[in-house]
């Protein structure tokens, strides 16, 4: 392989960009579906100087991060196909950022191998043709990894600021990171008091504080809109409600307010599933849906807390169901098993057991692990654990695969050379 080509990741991974463009053009639906219209409408709202309609009918279902990225396309009134084509660029850049981050902490061969694994991570291909946040979030995560590694390797101020900005913009894209930021801030403050290498924890706090500063305009906006401090959105209450469901045949996955089972991969019987959902939830849902915006969100949260207090063991079960769905995309309420589940279990199991091995190695060698890796993993672990508290799906784990691969690659690089060949033995033992 030509040395110049080999060392230039933009050329090395260029075939993936071309393939992603082809994949999007082949699989993009001709019309908008699911959540796609909402992201485009938010981008249009931003172009007109607002984000949500005024109270009481507020709409803060998701953060403004992804709509901001879509604004140029909305401003130019480009055809719909241009929006998902942006995903090809984001995915391609995420591969490059992951590769460049790995070259800072591991051998080039390992960096290339794990970057290619990410490039072929077909679980996330589902989102390539979709105008959804997953590919953009993975791009931000890979860029965040690279900037953190650069900062802790060289300590340049611009990398500190960039790390905080990327983490903040990720929070604006996936608002659950708002609670990750708050949790990581508390953890780093505790470590700063108890730890020995205080400079590392101080730098982590700076990154987190810059992330909060990045999100401050949005939080000020939501405060002016709702009168509530630290208010990220009004979708969390409904998600928490479905996660807290006390009914045995329901596993914490989100359902439509119309109480249909259409969001499951394969409803076993739409009529039967719908009738069970309506029997369990119609009265409460109908009562809550009479209200709007933040008030509706509050009522869903109150109902969820009531469910949790009444059936705490079921809530714990739902929490583990959520973690299982993130890893294996299973189980779903009122659904058949489908062949795709086998692939999800295989890929999820590979990631799970590789992570278990990496975790054991991390605990054994915890004092020797570079602090940048520890900080990145802190963010990921908190995100994973907090995500389980609301309705969770495989896509919430898929976007963090750059972190998982970065961590596993780092551990693999530090291991002694492993050979699959037996050691040579004398033939005199009679078995040769």
From TrEMBL:
The keyword Transmembrane helix applies. The chain crosses the membrane at residues 9-25, 80-99, 111-129, 135-153, 165-193, 205-223, 342-364, 371-390. Its main location: membrane. It is found in: Cell membrane. The keyword Electron transport does not apply. Keywords: Cell membrane, Glycosyltransferase, Membrane, Transferase, Transmembrane, Transmembrane helix. It comes from the Bacteria. It is a multi-pass membrane protein. PANTHER family: MANNOSYLTRANSFERASE YKCB-RELATED, MEMBRANE PROTEIN. This is 4-amino-4-deoxy-L-arabinose transferase-like glycosyltransferase. It comes from Mucilaginibacter lappiensis. The lineage of its organism: Bacteria, Pseudomonadati, Bacteroidota, Sphingobacteriia, Sphingobacteriales.
